[in-house]
Design brief:
mainly alpha; two-stranded antiparallel sheet; two-stranded antiparallel ribbon; 4 helices; globular
Length: 112
Amino acid sequence: EENGVSLASTIDIVGHLQSTCQLPSETQVVATDTKYPIQTHRVASPEDLVRAARKLFAENRGKEEAGEAAEEEDTGRTVLDFGEFAKILKSKHVCVWGECYFPKRKRGNGSG
C-alpha cells in the first residue's frame, strides 16, 4: 500500500478547485502559440497547472531538461507523497486559495 495522493487525483482536485473559483485567475492564464498579430491566451487545464508546478520543482532541483524529466515522472510515478502534493497546491502555478499570491504593492509618496 502506497501512502500519498495519486497524480490523477491531484489533477482532479486542481480541476475542482479551478471550477469552483478557488484559484487566482492570474495562475490560470497561459499564452498560446499564436503571437501574430497579437499574443493570444487561453485558460490552463488542470493538467497544465500540475505539469508546470512539477516542472518548476524539477528545475529547482537542478535537473537538466526538467520538462522532459517531469513528463517522464508523470508517466512513471502515479503516487505523490503528501509533501509534493502540498507543494503543488502552494506553487505559483496552482496557488490554491491565493496563499502564494502576493501582488506588488505600489508605494506612493511615503504614505503606503
